[in-house]
Specification:
Layout (H helix, E strand, L loop, with lengths): L1 H16 L14 H24 L9 H27 L8 H34 L1 H7 L2 H26 L17 H34 L6 H38 L3 H17 L4 H11 L2 H10 L25
Length: about 325
């Protein structure tokens, strides 16, 4: 009986090593990531649910910004709901025990939610720019119907892209206990990751920063807004950039270093072991977005704060000095 148990344990180790020929020590993140993900999950789920509950009433009017904010929070919530699976995975030394199909589903949901969050941050920056700098153009794009179709298109595109990528790069027929990772990374996966790093960070960051500068420039020419209103709008756009860089910057920077290094380094396994811990730390902090987004969009904006106080009266006691951040249009001032 003991012999059979030893054979079974040896077989499990052999299967696990098939995706880890570099001999990565998976115990290095076995405490840090489960604790970090557990903290994000415990705080983030009620926070996002509360924010969503307060924001849904705003979409009853022709008010498109809440539609994008709600979908940003939905992407955060989806990401949060995958964290218990990753907590179990990392706590057990990167051993996935829920089956390959579940691994594909959870991996697809996790990365789709990250990319959706990036897309919706870009859309929010664009919406603010159009409302302030191009109000005439905004009238044609500011309808609730257009916003709903745009949201549907974003989710459909991202989910289909992730399903295709996961099926292509990590077929469920592979007998691995690792989930959405392999050491050393193969050439096709390195190319895929470098492309996604470009599309999900460098281009969106340039887009958001460019819109922020143009919007602030247009804002200065508007005489009908007070100094406090202009300062609040600038604050919104600046915080959007800071949040984007803080949450996504470390992961994407370390990712670029990792995958470019794999193309240039003579020994891929040596490089994989060297960047393993920093890369995992950057990946873990991606879920920080789920804590920042609700606070950022509820408390920075006057109309969101008012909606939140309707459901949580205790929030009315919190003094927030920032003024109303809406542009010259009425896109965020309609209430029920």
């Amino acid at each position: 009986m003991e012999s059979r148990s030893n054979i079974s344990s040896l077989a499990s180790l052999t299967v696990a090593s098939m995706g880890n020929s570099c001999g990565i020590d998976f115990s290095q993140d076995g405490i840090f990531l489960p604790v970090l993900h557990g903290t994000f999950f415990i705080i983030g789920v009620p926070l996002n649910l509360t924010a969503l509950f307060g924001l849904f009433r705003l979409i009853k009017s022709e008010n498109v910004l809440p539609v994008y904010v709600i979908n940003l929070l939905i992407s955060d919530l989806i990401q949060l709901l995958t964290l218990p699976f990753w907590m179990d995975y990392y706590a057990n030394g990167h051993y996935w025990r829920f089956g390959p199909q579940t691994c594909q589903i959870i991996g697809m949901l996790f990365y789709s939610s990250i990319y959706a969050g990036i897309f919706f941050m870009c859309i929010i920056a664009l919406e603010r720019h159009l409302a302030i700098a191009r109000p005439l153009s905004f009238k044609h794009l500011g309808s609730l119907k257009f916003a709903c179709w745009l949201v549907l298109a974003v989710w459909t595109l991202l989910i289909l892209a992730q399903i295709t990528a996961v099926n292509k790069l990590f077929p469920k027929g592979q007998n691995f206990t690792l989930c959405i990772e392999k050491y050393p990374s193969e050439g096709s996966f390195i190319t895929y990751r470098l492309i996604t790093l470009l599309l999900s960070f460098i281009i969106p960051l340039s887009f958001i920063v460019g819109l922020q500068r143009q919007t602030v420039h247009s804002l200065m020419a508007i005489k009908s807004l007070s100094f406090e209103e202009k300062r609040s709008i600038r604050g919104l756009l600046t915080l959007l950039v800071i949040t984007f860089v803080t949450v996504f910057g470390p992961y994407h920077f370390i990712g670029c270093v990792k995958y470019i290094g794999l193309l240039m380094h003579g020994s891929t396994c040596v490089w994989e072991r060297a960047v393993f811990v920093p890369y995992q730390m950057g990946r873990g902090f991606l879920s920080l977005n789920s804590l920042l987004d609700p606070v950022f969009y509820i408390f920075l904006r006057k109309d969101f704060r008012a909606a939140a106080r309707d459901y949580l009266p205790c929030l009315g006691r919190i003094r927030i000095g920032s003024a109303q951040t809406d542009g010259p249009t009425n896109t965020t001032e309609e209430h029920d």
